[in-house]
């Protein structure tokens, strides 16, 4: 929106250079930009109360006129957030934080400079007339006064622009911090819809523009108001008959400005929609929490009676309640029931179609299938990077979407095809993102599990070796990423095996890791591996074959794999097998 506004302002600037038009556009731009950085919430309650009163209580009932959006739909198609100038200023004021003294200092300097500048013409005229009349004492007094005012206005003007420039810099910094923090926690689907360019522009140019309004325009407005008022008082005291026609023209200009400022009405309408949405959300939350909690209360009441009647044991009741309260520990059972999915950016292309899959805790399952059959998408849904369009995913019997997403992701280790390593030592790379304190031996243990310890130890500085682009092969990078995932001790480990792009040495790494994971009790966990090579699926419990967004085989073993793969898949794997034979 900020970009399109920027473009439209640019167009307006090139088409119409009228200062009035530019002023109106600038104000609208400022409000729109401010709304990007502020959550909706400061609602105009007086308006709502007024509307509610005018509609009566009946308007608020289900399907009552209070919820009706058609009037606004018809009147307005702009999706901007409802933020008024004052709201935007208040929020920006909060952003200044502890550095408000800079603004106060700037305002003080601004006031003194403005008053000095207003006083100068009167004293200048007085000194000219006193010189003309030969009144030397008055002339020197006026001249001294002029010099003092000159010095004051010079120093204070400098101080004013310095203070606002510093406030401007602080504001840009904070806006970017807040915006960046907000971007980091967006859903993956948000990044599908937004281009990198527009996000970069928000962080860069838009923040800069918004703070420019604060750093320059606002203090200029304040200065002009003070100087205008002073000039008006001066004019009125000099000659009110001359001043009144000027005032009439100014009044006319103010009316024209206010006509351009009519968009406020749209902001009010949008604020009203926001309030109704919040109210609907509040009602939903209230109903959900009350019903959810009442199941626990009922469980305790009825369960207590059943214990007294010896229908259930205390242990059974405790387990029952604990399941309802929260999933304490992830065992690693995964169940996908009738899951369908399409990407938000391509809603007409179904990727997963009524998919059903069940993975038991500690099972090692390989997912195979031709490129584009939806394997990575399936994993993306398990990681809750996206929500299924239809169907449900359960972890240990609890719907995935009801679990705390951060907590859940801590329990899942994921290693993608191109894992990212940081320019720091190998030890820190393995430790990266681990939510608990770990010792050197834990890091080595994880590296051993990932078959990385041997090559790390052979490096000149071992675990202290700094990772750089040319130091490690693709397979070695992946082993470090697996060590990183294993160190977090996830209940579910998902490996997206690299495709043919990697070197020959990496051919066996997933196979070895899977072998270790299956045979070491400390490493027991559910493992899902997206396999591209036959060698990988040798050691798994089960092979799941995907084709065109569906699971066509869900429980074949390695020995029967080749025999039962569908013809299409078989051809693909035969080709791989032949290539391998030719190579060897
Ligand atoms: N972010 C996305 N937005 C839109 N479409 C996508 C996105 N990611 C994947 N797709 C499409 O979804 C389909 C399934 O892709 P997916 O990556 O899940 O297949 P895959 O079986 O993992 O393939 P490969 O083995 O090549 O990794 C493909 O047609 C792909 O183009």
UniProtKB/TrEMBL annotation:
The keyword ATP-binding applies. Residues 334-573 form the ABC transporter domain. One of its GO terms (molecular function) is ATP hydrolysis activity. One of its GO terms (cellular component) is chloroplast envelope. It comes from the Eukaryota. The keyword Cell wall biogenesis/degradation does not apply. This is ABC transporter-like protein. The lineage of its organism: Eukaryota, Viridiplantae, Streptophyta, Embryophyta, Tracheophyta.
């Amino acid at each position: 929106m900020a970009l399109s506004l920027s473009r439209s302002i640019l167009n307006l600037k090139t088409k119409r250079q009228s200062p009035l038009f530019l002023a109106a556009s600038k104000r609208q731009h400022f409000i729109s930009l401010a709304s990007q950085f502020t959550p909706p919430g400061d609602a105009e309650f007086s308006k709502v109360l007024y509307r509610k009163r005018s509609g009566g209580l009946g308007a608020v009932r289900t399907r009552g006129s209070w919820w009706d959006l058609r009037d606004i739909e018809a009147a307005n198609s702009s999706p901007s957030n409802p933020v008024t100038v004052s709201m935007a200023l208040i929020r920006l004021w909060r952003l200044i934080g502890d550095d408000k003294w800079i603004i106060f200092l700037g305002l003080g300097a601004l006031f003194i400079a403005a008053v000095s500048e207003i006083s100068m013409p009167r004293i200048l005229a007085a000194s000219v007339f006193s010189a003309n009349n030969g009144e030397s004492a008055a002339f020197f007094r006026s001249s001294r006064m002029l010099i003092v005012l000159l010095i004051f206005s010079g120093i204070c003007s400098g101080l004013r622009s310095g203070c606002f420039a510093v406030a401007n810099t602080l504001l840009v910094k904070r806006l970017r911090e807040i915006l960046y923090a907000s971007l980091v926690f967006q859903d993956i689907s948000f990044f599908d819809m937004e281009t990198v360019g527009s996000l970069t522009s928000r962080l860069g140019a838009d923040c800069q523009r918004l703070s420019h309004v604060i750093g320059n325009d606002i203090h200029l407005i304040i200065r002009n108001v003070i100087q205008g008022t002073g000039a008006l008082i001066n004019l009125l005291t000099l000659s009110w008959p001359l001043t009144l026609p000027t005032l009439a023209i100014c009044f006319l200009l103010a009316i024209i400005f206010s006509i351009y400022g009519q968009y406020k009405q749209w902001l009010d309408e949008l604020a009203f929609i926001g309030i109704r949405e919040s109210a609907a959300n509040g009602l939903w939350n209230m109903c959900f929490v009350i019903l959810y909690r009442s199941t626990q209360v009922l469980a305790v009441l009825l369960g207590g009676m059943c214990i007294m009647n010896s229908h259930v044991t205390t242990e059974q009741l405790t387990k029952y309640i604990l399941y309802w309260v929260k999933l304490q520990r992830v065992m690693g059972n995964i169940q996908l029931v009738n899951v369908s999915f399409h990407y938000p950016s391509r809603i007409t292309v179904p990727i997963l179609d009524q998919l059903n899959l069940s993975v038991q805790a500690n099972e090692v399952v390989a997912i195979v299938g031709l490129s584009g059959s939806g394997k990575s998408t399936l994993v993306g849904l398990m990681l809750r990077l996206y929500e299924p369009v239809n169907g449900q995913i359960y972890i240990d019997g609890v719907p995935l979407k009801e679990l705390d997403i951060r907590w859940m992701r801590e329990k899942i280790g994921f290693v993608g095809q191109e894992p990212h390593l940081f320019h720091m030592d190998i030890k820190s790379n393995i430790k990266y993102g681990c939510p608990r304190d770990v010792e050197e031996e834990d890091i080595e243990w994880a590296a051993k599990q990932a078959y990385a310890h041997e090559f790390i130890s052979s490096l000149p500085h071992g675990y202290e070796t700094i990772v750089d682009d040319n130091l490690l092969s693709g397979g070695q990078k992946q082993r470090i990423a697996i060590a990183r995932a294993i160190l977090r001790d996830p209940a579910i480990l998902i490996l997206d095996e690299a495709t043919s792009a990697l070197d020959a040495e990496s051919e066996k790494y997933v196979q070895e890791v899977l072998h270790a994971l299956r045979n070491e009790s400390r490493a027991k966990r559910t493992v899902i591996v997206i396999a591209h090579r036959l060698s990988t699926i040798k050691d798994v419990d089960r092979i799941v074959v995907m084709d065109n967004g569906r699971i066509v085989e869900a429980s074949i073993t390695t020995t029967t794999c080749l025999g039962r793969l569908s013809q299409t898949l078989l051809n693909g794997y035969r080709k791989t097998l032949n290539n391998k034979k030719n190579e060897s």
